[in-house]
Amino acid sequence: xxxxxxxxxxxxxxxxxxxxxxxxxxxxxxxxxxxxxxxxxxxxxxxxxxxxxxxxxxxxxxxxxxxxxxxxxxxxxxxxxxxxxxxxxxxxxxxxxxxxxxxxxxxxxxxxxxxxxxxxxxxxxxxxxxxxxxxxxxxxxxxxxxxxxxxxxxxxxxxxxxxxxxxxxxxxxxxxxxxxxxxxxxxxxxxxx
Length: 193
Fold this sequence. Notes:
The chain is of the alpha/beta class. Helices cover 31% and strands 23% of the residues.
């Protein structure tokens, strides 16, 4: 059964959740709510995993990153998943396997090509170490990593994890299955988009 709950309360047992309504071109109140939740958790690096194949994570990360930058007055980095490599294009500068672009306080790192298994985790580890040195908040898209067996390794590199699901479309069992693949001690909740 699809879930259609509100901003800060998913009625599923043991789930802490929040909802982000997608609105273009401005930081909206829902993104600010999610950003405050991330700041309150004291997490610097947060991984976002989709509940199913039809859930798009990057648009939500862009809004959350803008809200985090506005609230925290710190730099925010968004790291794209290997699945987003085809979208990288030639825009921006190269840094290792990443295409790098910066828009105000938000830096976006997208793999230039789909790296061979294991290399993405190595490069992600390096990128996260750099972010700690620069005190940036980092949002990591974990899309597609379960298919190549790297979700556990990537989830271990972040301070907190979150499942991204489609409001009124994603089934409860899909959310539960996605959450079960993530470390329960660092699970922030479900983000409904």
